[in-house]
Design a protein that fits this description.
With about 220 residues, the chain is mainly α. It has a single domain (about 35-220), classed as Alpha-lytic protease prodomain-like (Up-down Bundle), CATH 1.20.1510. It is about 90% helix and about 0% strand. It has helices spanning about 1-15, 20-60, 60-75, 75-85, 90-120, 125-155, 160-185, 190-220. Helix 2 (about 20-60) runs antiparallel to helix 6, helix 3 (about 60-75) runs parallel beside helix 6 and helix 3 (about 60-75) packs parallel to helix 8 (about 190-220). The longest helix has about 40 residues, at about 20-60. The two termini are about 40 Å apart.
Length: about 220
């Protein structure tokens, strides 16, 4: 038993360092994944908070749809962080499914709010602030997309890559808020809930694409 222990110890910490190297690689991957998730969480949370303040002032349902989605995106960082802490590929795939569910839930909320605003019209105010909120959403999602996609490719994490592509698509969705401010300023307030519905459709498309991304990776594995 002593000889076997000595052999195992020397194999782990000797010239080759196989076991030691595997542990280090796993820990390093976990730390890099957590760093990417934490940075993107901070960016999206800050973005959504600014948009929330502007929504309370403007009352735009298009902006509401966008900020709900951004808060949902920030929330997806929680299961991803847990997966990297556990250093489990299976947990990462589970986190990917949670991301898909969060996207779908945000689409449902945005859709309900948009229909409600169509039934009870209310034109948004402070259109300059509304346009600024859309641009802020675009910038926040674009930065988060870069952080997640780069880390996902480096770490070969399908959940991070899918979330990065999701954030990139969301950055274009945020531009729809800018369009809403412009169209309402031109005298068409009904465009605000209509654009909210359009954003909902885009989010549903993102849900579908993300589902196939996650399921396709599961099939490969």
């Amino acid at each position: 038993m002593s000889d076997e222990h000595d052999h195992g110890h020397s194999h782990s910490h000797g010239g080759h360092g196989h076991s030691h190297g595997l542990v280090d690689s796993s820990i390093k991957r976990s730390r890099e994944g957590l760093r990417a998730v934490g940075l993107s969480l901070a960016v999206l949370s800050f973005t959504a908070l600014i948009q929330l303040v502007i929504y309370l002032v403007s009352g735009s349902v298009a902006l509401l749809a966008d900020l709900i989605h951004n808060f949902g995106d920030a929330a997806t960082a929680i299961p991803l962080a847990i997966a990297f802490l556990l250093r489990s590929e299976q947990s990462e795939r589970g986190a990917g499914l949670f991301v898909v569910f969060a996207i779908f839930a945000s689409a449902c909320v945005a859709g309900i709010e948009s229909v409600s605003r169509l039934i009870n019209p209310q034109a948004p105010t402070d259109l300059i602030a509304l346009a600024a909120a859309g641009l802020i959403g675009f910038g926040g999602n674009w930065i988060a997309a870069i952080i997640r996609t780069r880390a996902g490719k480096k770490l070969d994490s399908p959940a991070l890559i899918a979330d990065g592509n999701h954030a990139r698509a969301d950055s274009y969705v945020s531009l729809a808020v800018v369009a809403s401010a412009i169209v309402v300023a031109l005298g068409f307030p009904i465009a605000d809930p209509l654009i909210g519905l359009a954003i909902t459709v885009v989010i549903l498309k993102i849900t579908w694409d993300s589902w196939w991304t996650v399921r396709g990776h599961d099939h490969v594995h």
